[in-house]
Every structure is written in structure tokens, then in C-alpha cells.
TrEMBL record:
<dbReference type="InterPro" id="IPR036065">
    <property type="entry name" value="BolA-like_sf"/>
</dbReference>
<comment type="similarity">
    <text>Belongs to the BolA/IbaG family.</text>
</comment>
<dbReference type="Pfam" id="PF01722">
    <property type="entry name" value="BolA"/>
</dbReference>
<dbReference type="InterPro" id="IPR002634">
    <property type="entry name" value="BolA"/>
</dbReference>
<dbReference type="InterPro" id="IPR045115">
    <property type="entry name" value="BOL2"/>
</dbReference>
<protein>
    <submittedName>
        <fullName>Protein BOLA2-like</fullName>
    </submittedName>
</protein>
Length: 140
């Protein structure tokens, strides 16, 4: 008597049985659900999202301007940050970077690379933004 060999898929700590004939006959809904669960689990394990970084910085530093770019292709391992906050007043650049790193303490456990492009005070940032508005454009 031939027995059908079952396939097993492990998702986290749970093991699911997959019957090979059901897959062949086109009953792939179960595998689609498993794939979706696996993707969600991997997403949780992989790293932080751009929104998490933005929320953390916004709640702790109350920035006037904040731009976070995920340079890792969506896996949450690498970010570029541009931030303008009043908390940077009378702080040197190194101190500003330390403040940002402290604000992202929990996220930094999962982030591989954080590039702080700008960490400025509103007074430092305003002249630059005003300058870009006053530069005349030449039309051909």
C-alpha cells in the first residue's frame, strides 16, 4: 500500500502539513495564506519601518522639518535622516548626532546604518530654505 508523503512547512513555532495532491489539483489557497503569514513574520523580524523612525523622532525631538529615506530597499536596515529641531540649539554636531541616536535607541538595535544628512536648528535651516526661494530661475 502506497502512502502519500506529506510535506511540512514551519512558520515560527508552528508546523503545518501540506498534502501534495491538493497543491497539484490547484488548491493553493492554503499555500497563499502560509506565504502571507510567512511574509508578515519576516517583515516583523527584519527591521524597523520608515514610519517607526519618523514616529520616534517626531515624538522625542518635535522637529520643524523631518525627512526619513529608507535606503535599504524596504527591509529597514539603512536610513538617511534630515532633521531640524529646536532641541539642537547651542549643541555641536556630535551632540546633535548623539541626541538623534538616543531618540532612536530601540530602533538602532535593528538598524544597520543610519546616515544623518542634516541636523540643524530652525535658524540654520531657514536661511537655506529662504535662499532657494529667492534664486531666480532662467527660462529658455
Amino acid at each position: 500500500m502506497n502512502r502519500v508523503r506529506r510535506e511540512y512547512i514551519r512558520i515560527g513555532s508552528r508546523i503545518h502539513s501540506v498534502h501534495p495532491f491538493r497543491v497539484i489539483r490547484g488548491h493553493t489557497k492554503f499555500l497563499q495564506i502560509i506565504a502571507a503569514q510567512t511574509f508578515k513574520q519576516k517583515e516583523r523580524e527584519m527591521g524597523v519601518s520608515k514610519e517607526q523612525v519618523e514616529a520616534s523622532l517626531t515624538s522625542k525631538l518635535n522637529p520643524v522639518h523631518l525627512e526619513v529615506i529608507d535606503t535599504s530597499g524596504g527591509c529597514g536596515a539603512s536610513f538617511v535622516v534630515e532633521i531640524v529641531s529646536e532641541q539642537f540649539e547651542e549643541k555641536r554636531l556630535l551632540e546633535r548626532h548623539r541626541i538623534i541616536n538616543a531618540a532612536l535607541e530601540e530602533e538602532m538595535k535593528e538598524i544597520h546604518a543610519l546616515s544623518i544628512k542634516k541636523a540643524q536648528t530652525p535658524q540654520q535651516w531657514k536661511p537655506i530654505s529662504q535662499l532657494s526661494e529667492t534664486i531666480p530661475t532662467t527660462e529658455a
